[in-house]
Amino acid sequence: PGGGRNDVDPRFISLFNVYNITFPSEESLFSIYNSILEGHLQPFNKEVQDIAPILTRMTMELYHAILDALPPTPSKFHYIFNLRDLSRIFNGLVLTTPDRFPTAALLARVWRNECLRVLYDRLIDVQDRKF
Q1: With 0-12 CB in 10 A as exposed, 13-18 as middle and 19+ as buried, what is 113?
Q2: HSE (CB half, 13 Å, CA atoms) of 41?
Q3: Burial class of 33 by CB neighbour count within 10 A (0 to 12, 13 to 18, 19+)
Q4: pLDDT value of position 18
Q5: Which of 31, 44, 52, 59 could form a disulfide with 37 if both were Cys (CB 3.0 to 4.6 A apart)?
Q6: Angle formed by the axes of helices 83-93 and 26-40, to 10°?
Q7: Exposed, middle or buried: residue 4 (CB in 10 Å: 0-12, 13-18, 19+)?
Q8: What pTM does this model have?
Q9: Cα dihedral sign for 130, 57, 98, 117?
Q10: Where are the domains of the chain?
Q11: Is residue 8 scored above 90 in pLDDT?
Q12: Of the options 1.20.920.30, 3.30.1330.10, 2.40.50.840, 1.20.1250.20, the CATH number for the domain spanning 24-130
């Protein structure tokens, strides 16, 4: 009768634990994803290794720009971006091999492709895609 909410017995609720984990800071996220990418790029040449922090910073800035500019709305309810999307981008980057991606430009193209695959393909509006 109260909007579909039924009371739950307190003895049942006492069997569960509730944890609140705060969202990691910007610096923590950068450190985590940059460490993953730098570790993967160890067998690559120096030119490719040097762009790891740049790609990580660009990914973080792109992620935050999309969060700010494209919030979910009733018509765009699927515009929910989270850390899983960042992880998918970096997962695509760590699938690269030194023999196929010997230059920084090629790795940057992979980064662009992963960002388009993970973020851009979800956008449905022409204006959002231009952003």
Answers
A1: middle
A2: 26
A3: buried
A4: 85
A5: 52
A6: 20
A7: exposed
A8: 0.82
A9: negative
A10: 24-130
A11: no
A12: 1.20.920.30
Residues 62-113 pLDDT 10s: 999 999 999 998 989 889 999 999 999 999 999 999 999 999 999 999 999 9
| pLDDT attached to residue 9 | 87
Q: Is the dihedral of CA 96, 97, 99, 101 positive or negative?
A: positive
* Residue 40 near residue 93, CB atoms below 8 Å: yes
> Which tokens sit at 58?
């660009």
- Please choose, from the candidates 100, 103, 87, 110, the residue with its C-alpha nearest in 3D space to the C-alpha of residue 49: 103
Say if residues 114 and 93 touch (Cβ distance below 8 Å). Answer: yes
